[in-house]
Predict the 3D structure of the following.
Amino acid sequence: FQLAYAQWVNGQCDAAVRSYEETAKITARPDDRLLVDWGLALECAGRTDEAAAKMRQAYAIAPSAHIQTQIGMIYGKKNRFEEAMAALNEAEKLDPRFEMTYVYKGNLYATRGEVDTAIGFYKHAIAINPNNQNAKQALDLAEQGKAAAARQPGR
């Protein structure tokens, strides 16, 4: 498990996937933490549907907003907006105070060019947790992009 995680952190995605597979073989029953990390390694390796499937396995063991946000993040990176938003909406139902849900929703809207909507989600995440650096950085970028666009001629 530790080796697989280290490989994933170092960008050795395929090696990490193989190490998670080996870990699962020697584990009596993979727990949600193993499955989430395995899913992230699969996403890193470009295996989106397999990554989401591992996350759904983890969710079946331990339903959480965190796992749903990871599914949303996986689909969002592949521009699969509807699937990503469905997972994030489920995360919001499970725990409306889990701020990363709103960061990921903001990211989805930002990639679609809906900056005002994205800004609203980032601000909501910050209202929940004023120390969320991901939300703060995303908000800064979105506001800078909006300001730059407003300075463009013809706007």
Notes: The chain has a mean pLDDT of 95. Residues 133-150 form the longest helix (18 residues).
